[in-house]
Structures are given as structure tokens and as C-alpha cells.
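User: Sequence recovery, please. Input:
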């Protein structure tokens, strides 16, 4: 008599939300500040900003009914070498601590390879906090069945209080909010300028006119544009995602937990954000759709100043801004800020190695609102 397999892989859906939340609620022990992405109230619905064809591939312990591991795969259209292509994005790679030595992660990647070999995308982008050493070790282990992960670069995420940035802009440049009749011209600009960056998202008219999808809850009035001689030359947005997903502090290392009151006193003097209580959410806006012609720091500063001017001064709002290392726009951000470092990887299997090798050295862009 043959016994049933201990583990089974399946594609989770809305009926599995509670079990998924149990897996993702497990506290990380890595780093001085442990943060986690909270996708409540609707785990599945929150995935739409990460791409289309969402797949929540989960491994269940058939003896307990518990979900012990999950990998979320989405497909996006991004610019690669100036042309838009399907690119996968992996998020939420998680294995319960008591199952780290099981086959759970291997089963997830076996499934991903099956989809990959059907030609669904060029490769799988993945973002991992540098403090998450266990995940980085697994992804770069080179174990049988695992994809090869190529380093795209280090993404620096800065958290800071809204503060005006010094700028010296040409007076002939108009700064204002995006309007409905700008959309066609705006898309033309995004495609032209965005194609100069590796992995810049390819947006459509539908993305900018629907309240759902890749730009869920991002309104035209949240997008700030710079216009010169009746042409859009730069843009950025402040994206409020708090209704469907938000980063929250899960915990602190023992040292930070003890020193938090003292540190918050110092941070207040330095105008740095205060460290919130464990398990609490913080109110922030994501700096998104950053597309600046020639990476002009003065135009970026003026757009940023215009955007934060519209924030409700009664709210304790923070700004979250993500830039790749060596991006010159980092130099004009406020001096006092927290930073979190992530490694961006591109995973692929040997069947498409030659295509991955052809990706050129254009500076990368990853939309923070879709991580």
C-alpha cells in the first residue's frame, strides 16, 4: 500500500487567505528592524499592483493542512533593451521556520521552471532585503533545480519626513498635476523615456484610467508632471497604498527594543522618523513613477516639492523612496533619513541564458509601488 505524499503544491486563491496570513505573520529574526508587507484586508486583491497572471504557489503539509511555504509569481510588461517584454516577478518567498529543511522551496521552484519553459517570460525579478541572509543564501545556493540568479543591483529604500528640497529650475518649465486630457501624451513620454531604463514598467491607457490594476488607487492628481514647450519632460507620483497593502514593523532586535525610547528622543532632534511600536503600521506615501529626463536633479526636486505641498499637514506622513545605488537623484534627498538595502536579482534557467546575457548595461529601474 502506497502512502500519500507528505507535501502537495497547489495554486492558492481567496479561500486560502487565512492560511496564507498565518504563514506571513511569522516574525522574521533577521535585522535590527524587521518589517513585513501586510496585504490585508484582501491578500489576493493586493497582488494586482505586482503584475498580471498572479500565481500564489503554495505547499501544504497534507498531515496538518497548514501552508508551509509560498512563492508568489506575477508577470509584468517591462522594457528590456528598449523593447517591452514579459518579465516575471517573484515576491513573498516564504517557508515556515520549522519546515526550512523540507522540500517546500524546491517544489515551488520546480513549478516555476515548468511555467518558465513554456516561454511565459524572460526571467524572474526578485527583491530580497540584505538583512534576510537566509533567503539570499537559498536563492544563490545553486542547488539542483534552482534557477541561476544574476545580481541586477542594490536598491536603497529611504524613509524620511516630507521636507522641501532646494532647487534651481528653469522658469520656462511648468509643474502641475496630471489631467485626463494629458494621458496620451503622458504615455508617449513614459514609453520614450522609460525605455532608456532596464525593467521600467510598460504602462497602458487602461492602467491610468482604472482604479484597479498595476496602478491601483493611484489617481491622476497624485501624478506630478513637468512641461516644457508643451511637452512632458519628467514626472513622479506619491502613491497611497494604505487601503490595500502597507509595510509594517514586525519587531526589533533586543538591543533596539531596549533603546527605542532613547533613540526616538534623538531622532526627534534630528527630524528623523520615530521608531513605531512593534506590530504597528506607519502612514507613508511611496515615491513612484519617477521618470526624470536626463536625471535632472533640479526638475526632480521641483516635482517633489510640488507633490509634498499637497499632503495633509495634520497627518504624520512619511515618504518612502527607492533608488538603485549610484543613482544621482539620491544626492538631493533630505539629509536625515532611514535606509533599508535590498538586492535585486534576475532568475533564469539555462535554456534562456543566452538571452539574459544579451541584456545591456542600461541603468535599471524598479517600481517601488509594485515590490
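Assistant: Recovered sequence (371 residues):
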Amino acid at each position: 500500500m502506497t502512502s500519500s505524499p507528505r507535501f502537495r503544491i497547489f495554486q492558492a486563491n481567496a479561500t486560502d487567505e487565512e492560511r496564507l496570513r498565518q504563514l506571513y505573520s511569522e516574525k522574521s529574526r533577521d535585522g535590527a528592524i524587521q518589517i513585513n508587507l501586510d496585504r490585508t484586508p484582501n491578500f489576493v486583491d493586493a497582488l494586482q499592483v505586482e503584475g498580471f497572471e498572479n500565481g500564489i504557489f503554495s505547499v501544504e503539509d497534507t498531515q496538518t493542512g497548514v501552508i508551509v511555504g509560498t512563492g508568489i509569481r506575477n508577470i509584468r510588461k517591462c522594457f528590456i533593451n528598449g523593447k517591452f517584454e514579459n518579465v516575471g516577478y517573484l515576491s513573498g518567498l516564504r517557508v515556515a521556520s520549522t519546515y526550512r529543511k523540507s522540500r517546500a522551496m524546491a517544489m515551488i521552484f520546480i513549478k516555476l521552471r515548468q511555467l518558465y519553459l513554456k516561454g511565459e517570460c524572460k526571467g524572474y525579478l526578485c527583491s530580497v532585503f540584505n538583512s534576510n541572509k537566509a533567503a539570499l543564501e537559498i536563492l544563490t545556493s545553486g542547488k539542483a533545480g534552482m534557477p541561476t540568479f544574476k545580481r541586477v543591483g542594490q536598491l536603497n529604500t529611504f524613509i524620511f519626513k516630507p521636507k522641501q528640497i532646494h532647487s534651481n529650475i528653469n522658469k520656462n518649465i511648468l509643474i502641475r498635476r496630471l489631467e485626463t486630457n494629458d494621458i496620451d501624451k503622458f504615455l508617449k513620454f513614459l514609453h520614450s523615456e522609460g525605455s532608456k531604463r532596464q525593467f521600467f514598467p510598460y504602462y497602458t491607457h487602461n492602467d491610468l484610467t482604472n482604479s484597479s490594476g498595476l496602478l491601483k488607487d493611484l489617481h491622476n492628481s497624485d501624478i506630478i508632471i513637468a512641461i516644457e514647450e508643451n511637452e512632458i519632460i519628467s514626472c513622479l507620483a506619491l502613491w497611497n497604498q494604505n487601503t490595500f497593502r502597507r509595510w509594517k514593523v514586525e519587531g526589533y532586535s533586543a538591543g533596539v527594543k531596549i533603546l527605542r525610547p532613547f533613540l526616538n528622543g534623538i531622532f526627534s532632534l534630528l527630524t528623523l522618523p520615530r521608531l513605531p511600536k512593534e506590530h504597528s503600521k506607519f502612514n507613508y506615501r511611496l515615491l513612484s513613477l519617477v521618470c526624470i529626463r536626463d536625471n535632472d536633479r533640479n526638475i526632480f526636486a521641483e516635482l517633489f516639492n510640488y507633490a509634498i505641498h499637497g499632503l495633509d499637514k495634520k497627518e504624520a506622513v512619511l515618504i518612502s523612496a527607492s533608488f538603485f545605488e549610484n543613482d544621482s537623484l539620491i544626492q538631493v534627498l533630505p539629509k536625515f533619513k532611514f535606509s533599508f538595502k535590498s538586492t535585486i536579482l534576475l532568475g533564469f534557467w539555462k535554456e534562456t541564458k543566452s538571452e539574459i546575457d544579451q541584456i545591456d548595461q542600461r541603468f535599471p529601474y524598479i517600481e517601488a509601488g509594485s515590490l
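DSSP finds eight helices and 15 strands in the chain.
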